Amino acid sequence: MAGKTYILMIACLFAQLTVFAHSPSSIEAGYDNKKLQLHVKVYHSTTNPSGHYISKIVIVKNGAIVAEEKFVKQDNVDFEEHVFGITGIKPGDKIKVEAFCNISGFKSAMVEIK
Questions:
Q1: Measured between alpha carbons, how far is 70 from 5 in angstroms, rounded to an integer?
Q2: 28 is in which domain, residue-wise?
C-alpha cells in the first residue's frame, strides 16, 4: 500500500509542475546577409526565469543541424534571444528554428532565405 501511495504522490507532483509549464508561444527569426547572422527571438513568458526557461535553441539548415545553443536560465521574463553566426546561407535555403522549454514542450518555425 505504501508503494502505491508513493507513486500517487509523485504523479500528483508531476501534474502540478506541468500545469505551470508551457511551450514557447512564438518565434521570430531573421537572417542578416551582410553580417552572416541569424537573429532569433523566442517568446516564452515565465515568472521564474531560473527555474522555467528556454533551455535550448537548435538551428537546422536544409535538414541538417548547423547550430545549437543551450541555456541554464532565461534572461528576460518574456523571451529568450540569441544571435547565431551562420555562414553558407543562400537564397532559397530553408532554416528551421527549434526552441525547447526546460520543463515541457517546444516550438519550431521555418524561415526561407530570400
A1: 37
A2: 23-112
Its pTM stands at: 0.81
Cell of 106: 517546444
> What are 35-78's pLDDT values in tens digits?
999 999 999 999 999 999 999 999 999 899 999 999 999 999 99
Half-sphere exposure of 67 (CA within 13 A, CB side): 20
The count of structural domains within the chain is 1
Query: Residue 52 and residue 113: Cα distance in Å, rounded?
Result: 32
Let me know: does 104 contact 112? Beta carbons within 8 Å.
Answer: no
Q: How many CB atoms are located within 10 Å of the residue 20 CB?
A: 13
Domain-located, residue 73: yes
Return the CA Rg of the chain: 18
CA distances from 6 to 1, 10, 11, 13, 106 (A): 9, 6, 9, 11, 30
How crowded is residue 74: how many other Cβ atoms within 10 Å of its Cβ? 24
Cα 109 from Cα 99, distance rounded (Å): 9
Is 71 a member of any domain? yes
Name the grid cell of 41: 527571438
